[in-house]
Amino acid sequence: MSKASLTINIAFKIANAYNRNRIIQENENSILGFFSLEIFLEQLAMHIISEQTAIFSFYIQNGSISDEQFLKIIHTVKKLQKAPLYINKIGTLSITQLAAYGQRLKRQHNLIVLIIAYTQLIIKNSRHSLENHIQKITLDLKTLPKKLNIPIVALSQLSHQVKNRTDKCSQLSNLGDFSSIKQNAVIRPFIFKYRKANYLKNVEF
After folding, report:
1. Minimum mean pLDDT range among 9-13, 102-106, 118-122, 141-145
2. Number of other residues whose CB lies within 10 A of the CB of residue 124
3. How many other CB atoms are there within 10 angstroms of residue 95's CB atom?
4. CA 48, CA 179: separation in Å to the nearest integer?
């Protein structure tokens, strides 16, 4: 599973669970924001449908599905339509624009979570060097949750150096130019896609 696929499904599950429970009455009109700077809206929807129905997207796109699978897809689409999930496909976005969007969603729709896919595609201010640009992005992403009073999930690419490691284990150093995430992120989980044994044999418990 790719990081984009994992993240959009996390977003859908949060939104769907919130829609189902409606625990906090005064926040019942709240939404979850998903900002995709890379993947088309149709692809995001396909990711959700494929993961939730356990049907390969290839078969869905080609119509090679059974009647039972078709009903699963219809059920998932209805859940997706009802989920309080705001997906914004912009393509290019500055950190200032992102903050403005977040503040507007918070004010107008009571934003509860903001997910960004992904940090390397936030456009650079021409006045800043690459190093200063990256530091500004990570610092702004650190302060934005405090301003909006919500959690923010931001995806980041790793350098290809991790592929050269014998254990294929991702490390913070593999963030490359975005190493400032080490200092500014509160939680830094990694998606591990290689064989579990490659990792566990070098881990001390």
Report:
1. 118-122
2. 15
3. 21
4. 30
Q: What does the chain come to in residues?
A: 205
Dihedral, 128, 132, 134, 139 alpha carbons, nearest 10:
-120
pTM for the model stands at: 0.73
Treating both helix axes as pointing N-terminal to C-terminal, what angle do 67-82 and 41-53 enclose, rounded to 10 degrees? 120
Q: What pLDDT, on a 0 to 100 scale, did the predictor assign at position 42? A: 79
All structural domains of the chain, each given as residue ranges with its CATH number in brackets, are 3-18+26-157 (3.40.50.300), 158-193 (no CATH)
Contacts with 177 (C-beta within 8 Å, 6 or more apart), sequence order: 130, 131, 134
Tally of CA atoms within 13 A in the half-sphere of 21 that contains its CB: 10
| Paired tokens of 84 | 């309080």
What is the spatial distance between Cα 60 and Cα 56, in angstroms, rounded to a whole number? 7
Amino acid at 182: K
Distance CA 173, CA 160 (A): 11
Percentage of residues in the chain with pLDDT exceeding 70?
Answer: 61
Q: Work out the average pLDDT over 94-114.
A: 88
Nearest to 155 by CA among 187, 126, 125: 187
Hey, what amino acid is at 196? K
Q: What single letter denotes the amino acid at residue 162?
A: V
Give dist(CA 137, CA 165) in Å, integer: 28
Judging by DSSP bridges, how do beta strands 85-89 and 31-36 pair with one another? parallel
Closest CA to 120 of 131, 134, 110, 106: 134
